[in-house]
Design a protein that fits this description.
Layout: E1 4-9, H1 13-23, E2 29-35, H2 39-45, E3 50-52, H3 55-59, E4 66-69, H4 76-85, E5 89-93, H5 100-113, E6 117-120, H6 127-138, E7 144-150, H7 172-175, H8 177-188, E8 193-199, E9 210-217, E10 220-227, E11 235-241, E12 244-249, H9 254-259, E13 279-285, E14 288-293, H10 302-312, H11 322-343, H12 347-353, E15 370-380, E16 385-395, H13 401-414, E17 424-426, E18 438-441, E19 447-453, H14 458-467, E20 470-475, H15 480-487, E21 497-501, H16 504-511, E22 517-525, E23 528-532, E24 537-540, E25 543-546
Parallel strand pairs: 1-2, 1-4, 2-3, 4-5, 5-6, 7-10, 15-22, 19-20, 20-21
Antiparallel strand pairs: 7-11, 8-9, 9-10, 11-12, 12-13, 13-14, 15-16, 17-18, 18-19, 21-25, 22-23, 23-24
C-alpha cells in the first residue's frame, strides 16, 4: 500500500512531543515535511524530512495527502482553512478553533471539499480514561453521581510563550479545558448546565491559570479542575457511585514517555502507555468498606492517527469528527459567558440566569440557530408507506450534525401515513425540558407519540410515558452502552416505551450527508434503513434495546 504523505505545520512543543513521534510509528503514514524557521532543529530529530520556511509553502505542495495543524490556537482557523482549500485532509490540534463560528466554517468547508477534518483530542486514549470508560460500562460502582476530573500541575513561574500571554485562545481554559470537556462529553453527553469560575493566580499571570467548572446533569455532577499552583496533589479522577468510588492519582504516562524521546510503534510495544499511578477501588462489603488496587489499561495515542489514516482511506470512521469538537467549542464559549457573568455579578445578571450566588449557563438557544431544509422521499416497505416530505430543521451551534441527522432519521422512520390524526412535528427538546425532539399530537392536542433523541434519563422517560400514548428513545453515541446499563432496570414498568440504538459509526456516516439544502431518499426494508443523496448512501441497522 502506498503510504499517505503527511506534513506538519510548525515545530513547537506539540509537534515535537506528540504529533511527529506518534505519526512516525503508524504504518501507512509517511512524515515527509515540516514547516519551521529553524531547519537545524527539525533535522536534528528528523533528518530525512523536508523543511519549508512557511506553512503556506508546505500547504502548496501537491504531493501531500494530510496536513496537521498544531500551531498557536489563533492560527488554527486560517491555516486549516487554507489546507482544506488546497484539497488536503486536515488534523487540527485542540482547541479546534478560537471561536465556535470559526469551527462551523471549517466543518462546512470540509464538506464542500469532501475532505476528512479531524481534531486531535488525544486524551481519549489516555490509559486512565480508557479504564474509567470500562469501569462505567461494568456497572461496578452502581449509579454514578459525581465525577471529579483534575489536570493539576505546579508551575509557579509565568513563562514567555504564546499560551501564557494575553490574546485570543490563550490560558488554561483553552489549553486544558478542551481535554476535560471532551472527556465529559464522551462519558455523559451534553450537560443541562455549565458554571465556570476562572482566575489568574500566579504572580505576573495575564491569562487564566486556574479554573473550576461544574457540569450539571440530572442526578449527576461533573467537576473539572485545573491549577498551575498545585504542589503535592496529584489526583486525576475521582468517580463516585451508589456502590463505591474509584480514585486515580497521577497523569497518563504517555506524555512523559514522549518527552523522554520515546517513539511508539503501532500497534504499540508492550511497555508503551503503561500507567504506574495509584488506582484504587473502594466498595461496600456489608457494613464495611473494602479498598483494592484497580488495574489500569495501557494508553495508546497511535489509535488516533491509525483512525485518521483509515478514515481517509474509507476503511473506518473519523476518530474525532470535527462536529464533536464543535460541542467542545460551544461549551468553551458558554463557560466564558458564565465566567464573565460571575465577574459582573449584579441583580440583573442573576435574574437572567435564574441564580442567586453561582451563575450558570442553562439555555443553549442563547446562540443563533442555523436553518436546514430537507426534501425526503420515503419508501418504507415495512410499514407500506411511500411519501414525500419537505422538512425544516433549526440546528443550534451546540447541536452536532450527527444529532440533527438522527432527528431527521427519527422523523422519516415515524412519520404517519397521513395527517388525519395530527402531524409529526419537531419540538424544542434541546432547550425545553417539557418537550421532546419530535412529537405527534392528535387534533385535540393529546400527545400520541413522544420521540427523544440522545440519552434521556429514566425520570424523563417515565414522565413522558405518563403524558404520551407511545414513547420512543433513539440513542446513537459510542457511550450508549454505558447509559443503557445504568438505565435498563429503571424503566421496566414502562409498557409504552421503546428504546433504540443507532451504531455510532452509522450515525457518524449519516452526519456526513448533512447540507443546508438536502434531497434524501430513505428506504426501509426488513428493519434496515438506507439513506442516500444520489451520490452517497448510508446503511443503518437500528438495534432495539427495549423491550428486548
Amino acid at each position: 500500500m502506498t503510504p499517505l504523505r503527511l506534513g506538519i505545520l510548525g515545530y513547537g512543543f506539540a509537534t515535537q512531543t506528540f504529533h511527529a513521534p506518534v505519526v512516525a510509528g503508524i504504518p501507512g503514514l509517511e512524515l515527509v515535511a515540516i514547516s519551521s524557521r529553524d531547519p537545524a532543529k527539525v533535522h536534528a530529530d528528523w533528518p530525512a524530512v523536508q523543511v519549508h520556511a512557511t506553512p503556506q509553502e508546505l500547504i502548496a505542495r501537491p504531493d501531500l495527502d494530510l496536513v496537521v495543524v498544531p500551531t498557536p490556537n489563533d492560527s488554527h482557523y486560517p491555516l486549516a482553512r487554507d489546507a482544506l482549500r488546497a484539497g488536503k485532509h486536515v488534523v487540527v490540534d485542540k482547541p479546534f478553533t478560537v471561536t465556535l463560528a470559526e469551527g462551523q466554517a471549517l466543518v462546512r468547508l470540509a464538506r464542500e471539499q469532501q475532505r476528512v477534518l479531524s481534531v486531535f483530542h488525544n486524551r481519549r486514549w489516555d490509559g486512565d480514561f480508557l479504564t474509567l470508560q470500562a469501569l462505567l460500562r461494568s456497572g461496578e460502582l452502581g449509579r454514578i453521581v459525581h465525577l471529579d476530573s483534575h489536570f493539576d500541575r505546579f508551575r509557579p513561574q509565568v513563562r514567555q510563550r504564546w499560551r501564557e500571554v494575553a490574546g485570543p485562545g490563550t490560558g488554561l481554559w483553552y489549553d486544558l479545558g478542551p481535554h476535560l470537556l471532551d472527556q465529559a462529553l464522551r462519558l455523559f453527553g451534553w450537560p443541562l448546565g455549565l458554571t465556570l469560575d476562572s482566575a489568574s493566580m500566579r504572580d505576573g499571570a495575564v491569562t487564566d491559570d486556574w479554573f473550576h467548572a461544574l457540569l450539571r446533569y440530572d442526578g449527576l455532577r461533573v467537576t473539572l479542575h485545573v491549577s498551575a499552583l498545585s504542589a503535592g496533589s496529584d489526583l486525576r479522577f475521582a468517580l463516585y457511585g451508589t456502590r463505591g468510588s474509584w480514585l486515580k492519582h497521577g497523569l497518563d504516562a504517555q506524555e512523559d514517555q514522549l518527552k523522554a524521546g520515546g517513539r511508539p510503534s503501532w500497534p504499540p510495544q508492550a511497555d508503551w502507555g503503561r500507567d504506574t499511578g495509584r488506582s484504587t477501588l473502594t466498595r461496600a462489603d456489608g457494613d464495611t468498606l473494602a479498598t483494592l488496587d484497580w488495574p489500569l489499561q495501557a494508553g495508546g495515542y497511535g489509535a488516533y492517527y491509525a483512525g485518521v489514516r483509515d478514515a481517509i482511506l474509507g476503511r473506518g470512521p473519523n476518530p474525532v469528527p470535527a462536529e464533536e469538537a464543535l460541542e467542545v467549542m460551544a461549551l468553551i464559549e458558554l463557560g466564558r459567558e458564565s465566567a464573565r457573568a460571575r465577574a459582573v455579578s449584579s441583580r440583573a445578571v442573576r435574574a437572567r440566569f435564574g441564580l442567586i450566588a453561582a451563575l450558570r449557563i442553562e439555555t443553549p438557544m442563547a446562540l443563533k440557530a442555523t436553518i436546514f431544509k430537507a426534501a425526503l422521499q420515503i419508501a418504507d416497505m415495512d410499514r407500506g408507506l411511500y411519501a414525500d416530505h419537505q422538512v425544516t430543521l433549526a440546528r443550534h451551534p451546540s447541536e452536532t450534525d450527527e444529532r440533527m441527522m438522527v432527528r431527521l432519521l427519527a422523523f422519516a422512520l415515524n412519520v404517519p401515513a397521513d395527517d388525519h390524526r395530527g402531524a409529526l412535528e419537531f419540538a424544542k427538546g434541546l432547550w425545553d425540558t417539557d418537550e421532546p425532539e419530535l412529537w405527534h399530537k392528535d387534533l385535540t392536542g393529546q400527545i400520541e407519540h413522544w420521540i427523544d433523541v440522545g440519552q434521556p434519563d429514566d425520570k424523563r422517560l417515565m414522565k413522558a410515558c405518563g403524558r404520551s400514548s407511545r414513547v420512543t428513545a433513539i440513542a446513537y453515541s459510542a457511550s450508549t452502552p454505558i447509559w443503557w446499563a445504568a438505565l435498563a432496570n429503571k424503566v421496566t414498568r414502562a409498557g409504552n416505551l421503546e428504546v433504540w440504538q443507532i451504531p455510532a459509526e452509522q450515525s457518524q456516516a449519516l452526519a456526513a450527508l448533512a447540507q443546508r439544502g438536502m434531497q434524501l431518499q430513505v428506504t426501509v426494508q426488513d428493519g434496515t434503513v438506507w439513506v442516500g443523496d444520489g451520490a452517497r448512501s448510508v446503511e443503518i441497522t437500528p438495534q432495539r434495546l427495549y423491550p428486548a
